[in-house]
Design brief:
- The radius of gyration is 20 Å and the shape is globular.
- The chain is of the alpha/beta class and about 350 residues long.
- Strands 5-6-2-7-1-8-9-10 form an eight-stranded mixed sheet, with helices on both faces. A five-stranded antiparallel sheet has the order 11-15-12-13-14, with helices on one face. The protein has a two-stranded antiparallel ribbon with strand order 3-4.
- Helices cover about 25% and strands about 25% of the residues.
- The longest helix has 15 residues.
- Strand 13 and strand 14 form a beta hairpin.
- The protein has two domains: about 190 residues, Rossmann fold (3-Layer(aba) Sandwich), CATH 3.40.50.300; about 110 residues, CobW-like, C-terminal domain (Hypothetical Protein Yjia, Chain: A,domain 2, 2-Layer Sandwich).
């Protein structure tokens, strides 16, 4: 964990049985060295990688790979954030699994309203059970309200639905969420890179228990999860127009799930670099100083599936600024995505 950089808090929500815990298990087994603080907001017994976590306030268990899992009541969440975000905890990201009956907006308010300077809101991932979505909506109409808050929608268990029915389902979800990215998956296999960055440190070459378990789980498989996604790397020695970059992030092409990188803006007198994170529709920007000797080059990585690559590369080329430096007002739209 880099001292001084707020730890993103990613909320995973969804109705009972949609696959939230399965998603957490997958993230933990594929963490790539990222130390995850998992907060389980549920009073029942929760099975995380076959380790029972009693649903009582302040119960916690180390998962053996640097990750920590806790089960807490919402009222104690802020106190737990303070403990997990402490430098001695060495946590890189906090993932909160909301109870299947929880109101996501309450969880979001809790994170956004926190006075803890060491955490920042990392977005809402809403998990949908493809096989049960329509019946769940009938019983619980508030599901639509939850979906509208999402930055990324994971439509899980797609293998349990016929292709034509799946198309109808995704179209139904699309009507609710608009342009929010929708990720179809089975067994909640979501690439961690779509939700958070790997740590900037060396990871021991020796396989951890989690990696061994993953190797065993997928014995005989030769495709990697990242093979299912498109990735575009963009580098520019010329500074960028913040307004055009913001338009790309706020109005991304269909299929773009993630964007991250460091950019330099062509604004008169601006000497900082800007670290950019986007998970679905959730955008976060962090102004930082350039390190001594660091080259002022913009680097972005964009990840998605089914993207029109030519169109995306054209839009990326369009964010490069040529001509006279821009005025300070060019940064105005960006400031709303900078944590206070």
């Amino acid at each position: 964990m880099v001292v001084g950089v707020p730890i993103p808090v990613v909320i995973v929500a969804g109705y009972l049985g949609s696959g939230k815990t399965t998603l957490l298990n997958y993230l933990l087994r594929n963490n790539g060295g990222t130390r995850i603080g998992v907060v389980v907001n549920d009073f029942g017994a929760v099975n995380i990688d076959s380790m029972l976590v009693a649903g009582q306030v302040d119960s916690a268990i180390s998962l053996g790979n640097g990750c920590i899992c806790c089960a807490v009541d919402v009222s104690d969440m802020d106190e737990l954030f303070a403990r997990l975000a402490h430098p001695r905890s060495a946590i890189d990201v906090i993932v909160v699994e909301a109870s299947g009956l929880a109101e996501p907006k309450n969880m979001i308010r809790l994170v956004l309203g926190s006075t803890n300077p060491h955490i920042t809101y990392g977005g809402l991932v809403e998990v949908v059970d493809a096989a049960e979505f329509e019946s769940t909506r009938e019983r619980h109409p508030e599901v639509d309200q939850h979906l509208r808050l999402a930055d990324l929608v994971v439509v899980n268990k797609v293998d349990a639905v016929a292709a034509d029915k799946l198309s109808e389902l995704i179209a139904s979800v699309r009507k609710v969420v608009g342009d929010v990215p929708i990720l179809p998956t089975s067994e909640a296999r979501v690439d961690p890179q779509l939700l958070f960055d790997p740590p900037e440190r060396e990871v021991a070459a020796q396989l951890t228990l989690d990696q061994l378990l993953l190797e065993d789980d997928h014995a005989g498989e030769h495709r990697h999860l990242h093979d299912e996604y498109d990735s575009v790397s963009f580098t520019s020695v010329q500074s960028l127009d913040p307004r055009k970059l913001l338009d790309l992030l706020e109005n991304p092409p269909t299929g773009l799930f993630r964007a991250k990188g460091v950019v330099a803006f062509a604004v008169s007198g601006e000497r900082r670099k800007f670290v950019v994170h986007a998970v679905g529709r959730h955008i976060r920007v962090e102004p930082m100083r350039w390190s001594k000797g660091e080259e002022r080059v913009s680097n972005l990585v964009l990840i998605g599936a089914g993207i029109d690559m030519d169109a995306l590369e054209g839009r990326l080329a369009g964010v490069v600024h040529s001509g006279d430096p821009l005025g300070d007002d060019a940064l105005l739209g960006l400031w709303r995505y900078v944590s206070a």
